[in-house]
């Protein structure tokens, strides 16, 4: 009697596991194939934890910028972006995502500083600070971590926490996760903009972006 | 062989046909207790390390989702005013010791089994509350905590099944027989459901790893 009891149990348990594995395999396969579907792509463009500089109540227009703080084109686009943000305010959702370019010596340091600031609710001030001062710290071979610490101090951050966060694996992974999403979405350089999940192919300046935003708002 | 063990345990007459022998329950409690205790121990040590040095990155902070550091800093990590792992550190070894005693042939009275039942009910409810907090409030998973969830679910299932089979807990005979017939499928299904919830909750993240 025990023998049959045991084997029924084993059969049912293995059966349950087999079904679970089959479901998992199915999900993985479907997902692999579905990587290019618009919904999957749209999800990768803005994650729940992505940094939003503004959030539109109606959720109609979302602009996502993949950027590197040490990139000249991003710096060139920055004034236009800030002007647009000032103009449109909360009528658009503006999302910033990290895409550090490895050949820029302090790209990762800067992204980590921004993320560490974000952990104290100061992403936007740090984002501005890094761009406003980019010519001072950019394109230098030496680590500018100390400079970024100075900025953090100016922003009134808890320095013990900031230093710990900058060096933490979590912050590194968070930055990396953004970059991984970018790669999956076909981002090759910075800045790359997405408007409502669609890659923006126009000129990444004030006029170009404004036209696309207006088109979305008026659609 | 099992029959002699069972009779040595003096809980049942030789030829007893219980599905979950004292041997099975003994091993389950011993291993479950040890695993739970180890996980609680590591969590307590990590918590102390974190207190000593706020910049310390716990060994289980692997990526944004699998991260103890952020979880250990939350209020949910010390619901009762002290770090949760202290509960496990105190309770799991008791379970392991009782399991070992069963393996050694000890016979435990009904009140002891009912106390174990109460303890595992508390534990299993607690870890599900933590599971909910972890997934839907904190948004991260802590690997050692998940080891505790698994240990707790297995311990609860087998303690309950044992108490049903031995009549420590009242239940319709048929129900008990049915549950016993698929005993290991119960925690398996249970854990798979939790796994599925984790998969869905962090889907955005997992798919980036594919």
Main traits of this protein?
heterodimer; A: 219 residues; five-stranded mixed sheet; B: 210 residues; mainly alpha; 9 helices; disordered N terminus
Morphology of chain A:
globular
Q: How many helices of chain A in DSSP terms? A: 10
Main sheet attributes: strand count, strand direction, barrel closure of chain B: none
- Mean pLDDT across all amino acids of chain A: 87
Distance between the termini of chain B: 48 Å
Distance separating the two termini of chain A: 71 Å
Q: What is the topology, as strand order, of the major beta sheet of chain A? A: 1-3-2-4-5
Oligomer: heterodimer
* Structural class computed from helices and strand pairing of chain A: alpha+beta
Poorly predicted ranges of chain A (pLDDT <50, ≥5 residues)?
none
List low-pLDDT spans of chain B: 1-15
Summarize, please.
The complex is a heterodimer of chains A (219) and B (210). With 219 residues, chain A is of the alpha+beta class.
């Amino acid at each position: 009697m025990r023998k049959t009891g045991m084997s029924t149990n084993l059969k049912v348990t293995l059966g349950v596991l087999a079904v679970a594995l089959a479901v998992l395999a199915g999900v993985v396969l479907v997902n692999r194939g579905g990587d290019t579907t618009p919904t999957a792509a749209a999800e990768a463009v803005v994650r729940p934890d992505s940094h939003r500089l503004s959030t539109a109540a109606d959720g109609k227009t979302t602009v996502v910028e993949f950027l590197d703080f040490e990139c000249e084109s991003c710096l060139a686009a920055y004034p236009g972006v800030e002007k647009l943000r000032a103009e449109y305010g909360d009528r658009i959702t503006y999302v910033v995502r990290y895409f550090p370019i490895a050949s820029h010596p302090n790209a990762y340091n800067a992204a980590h500083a921004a993320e560490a600031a974000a952990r104290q609710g100061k992403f936007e001030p740090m984002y501005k600070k890094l761009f406003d001062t980019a010519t001072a710290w950019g394109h230098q071979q030496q680590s500018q971590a100390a400079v970024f610490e100075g900025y953090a101090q100016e922003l009134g951050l808890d320095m013990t926490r900031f230093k710990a966060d900058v060096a933490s694996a979590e912050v590194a992974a968070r930055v990396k996760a953004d970059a991984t999403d970018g790669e999956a979405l076909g981002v090759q350089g910075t800045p790359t903009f997405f408007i409502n999940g669609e890659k923006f192919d126009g000129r990444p300046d004030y006029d170009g972006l404004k036209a696309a935003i207006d088109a979305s708002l008026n659609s | 062989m099992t029959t002699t063990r069972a009779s040595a345990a003096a809980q049942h007459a030789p030829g007893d046909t219980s599905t979950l022998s004292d041997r099975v329950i003994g091993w389950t409690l011993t291993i479950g207790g040890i695993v739970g205790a180890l996980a609680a121990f590591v969590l307590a040590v990590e918590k102390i390390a974190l207190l000593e040095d706020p910049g310390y990155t716990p060994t289980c902070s692997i990526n944004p989702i699998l991260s103890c550091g952020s979880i250990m800093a939350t209020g949910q990590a010390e619901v009762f005013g002290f770090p949760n792992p202290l509960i496990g550190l105190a309770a799991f070894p008791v379970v392991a010791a009782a399991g070992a005693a069963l393996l050694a042939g000890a016979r435990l009275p009904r009140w002891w089994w009912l106390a174990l039942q109460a303890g595992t009910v508390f534990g299993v409810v607690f870890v599900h509350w933590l599971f909910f907090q972890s997934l839907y409030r904190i948004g991260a998973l802590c690997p050692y905590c998940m080891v505790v969830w698994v240990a707790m679910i297995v311990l609860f299932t087998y303690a309950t099944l044992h108490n049903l089979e031995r009549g420590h807990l009242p239940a319709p005979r048929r129900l008990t027989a049915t549950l016993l017939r698929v005993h290991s499928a119960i925690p398996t299904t249970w854990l798979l459901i939790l796994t599925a919830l984790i998969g869905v909750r962090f889907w955005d993240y997992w798919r980036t790893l594919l």
